[in-house]
Design brief:
By secondary structure, the chain is an alpha+beta fold. The chain has helices at residues 2-24, 66-76, 105-113, 117-121, and strands at 57-60, 82-83, 98-103, 133-134, 137-144, 159-163, 166-177, 186-187, 190-193, 204-206, 213-217, 224-227, 230-232, 234-245. It is globular, with a radius of gyration of 21 Å.
């Protein structure tokens, strides 16, 4: 009798282990649309939207053409999006939106090598800002009017993660805007506050622009910032990070 009980317990433990393992399986990587037309479609130039903040905020206009942005929005709408909670963990941003997150090294390499991003960041004028590669953690986010407009004030700590065989840390956040006012998105600006206080007079406001890439420092050099409410339409972004050597 004791043997039967032990066998049942062992079987139960095995099932529990299998269930736990199944839940921890990473989602399959999507079959991303190809980069058409071949990128880049124009010379990429890193510029700062505010004088004096060249080392903390930068943009690349026309990083993706509008046609490719439309293709990706259409594709992303087929993916299973998850609504993120409004209450963050300690030290994290307050964000509430629908998102799809995946760890996809192959796609991250395409973004780094086949878009012109690597060459743009290795230009002599800006190469001191970043000397490593692209994070494989790819996040697609949808923000639209029905979601709560919790303040998205951010003071992010630096996170470490392996980049191949080189230990690196994420220090630059990248936001690729796939929609803007041209597609009916009203609001959704990213506002930076240079003096660690929410002052509208001091705010550096970046409006969504379809195909534009916004880069901003996080960790110790992160400026207080927020993603403003989307008042109408949909704001689609691709978010990832740049890695630099520790």
């Amino acid at each position: 009798m004791g043997k039967d009980k032990s066998s049942k317990q062992s079987a139960a433990n095995k099932r529990a282990h299998q269930s736990s393992a199944a839940q921890s399986v990473a989602p399959a990587t999507p079959n991303w649309p190809p980069f058409k037309p071949p990128l880049p479609v124009t010379d990429l130039m890193l510029t700062s939207p505010a004088q004096g903040f060249e080392n903390t905020i930068a943009v690349i206009h026309n990083f993706w053409p509008k046609s490719l942005c439309r293709d990706y929005v259409t594709f992303l709408k087929t993916l299973p999006l998850t609504t993120t909670p409004g209450r963050p963990k300690r030290g994290e941003a307050v964000r509430q939106n629908d998102r799809y997150q995946v760890n996809d090294p192959a796609f991250s390499q395409k973004l780094w090598l086949e878009t012109g991003l690597k060459d743009a960041l290795r230009d002599d004028s800006v190469r001191h800002l970043c000397t490593a590669s692209y994070s494989s953690n790819i996040r697609m986010r949808l923000m639209d009017k029905p979601l709560d407009d919790d303040s998205q004030l951010v003071t992010l700590p630096s996170a470490t993660e392996p980049s191949g065989t080189v230990t690196a840390k994420t220090t630059w956040t990248l936001l690729l805007y796939l929609t803007s006012g041209a597609e009916g998105c009203i609001g959704g600006e990213t506002a930076f506050y240079p003096h660690d206080r929410k002052s509208e007079k001091e705010a550096i406001v970046i409006a969504p622009e379809t195909g534009m890439l916004l880069l901003h420092k996080h960790g110790d050099d992160c400026l207080l910032h927020e993603g403003r409410e989307v008042k109408a339409g949909e704001k689609w972004i691709l978010r990832s990070d740049l890695l630099v050597p520790k």
